[in-house]
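2024-03-11 09:14:02 INFO queue: dequeued item 5417_t:CDS:1, len=211
2024-03-11 09:14:02 INFO validating residues
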Amino acid sequence: MIDKILKKLSLKNCKKGSRYILGGLVTLWLTLVLLAPLIEFAKIVTFIFVRSDDVIKLNNAVELTYFLIASFVPCKSLCSLDRAIADMHRILSITQLSHFIGWIIATNCIACCIQTGLTPNILKQKLLDDIGDIPSNCPSDYPYPVPKLYLACMIRATNFVFMWMYTCLNIIFLLMAFSGILPTEDELVRKKKDFNIKTIIEGIEDDEEKK
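2024-03-11 09:14:37 INFO prediction written
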């Protein structure tokens, strides 16, 4: 009898812990939704100013495509701010169709593969050489031709990290949506719940089920 109670409590704590982890991931994802396009915009602006010295290059097609698609989700949310978090399940559906296919395949995967050297030499010569011979980790003791190149390199590195984090979280949430870990819209309507961080942590069980 005691073993069953302990087992039940252990399972309950495990579920609660997993909800806190998922809630943390959602919080991080929502933060990246806002920060990713801002960092990309900062990179584009910085590269444009530094590019005037003919030191670094900006691939307009890749960068602008990434910026436009990365800006789509926060812009959609801001258009209906009162339901920005409640509509997250629909946002994930949009991510699956346009954001996931367009952004991850056309920009993230290409850009990440380019920066990690997983592309043919011809493409690497055209796209990888955006900061010349400057190391990707932007060492502070490197002899930069001009001081603002260090800032451009740091913004580029930060943008690269955000791209990977955002991509991985998108994939995780898509897998969760497909596997049923995330609550469906029908479940939320039936339980009269909104899809937000509190719902994820507390679960969507009603009072009778909790008893």
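2024-03-11 09:14:37 INFO annotate: The mean pLDDT is 65.
2024-03-11 09:14:38 INFO item closed
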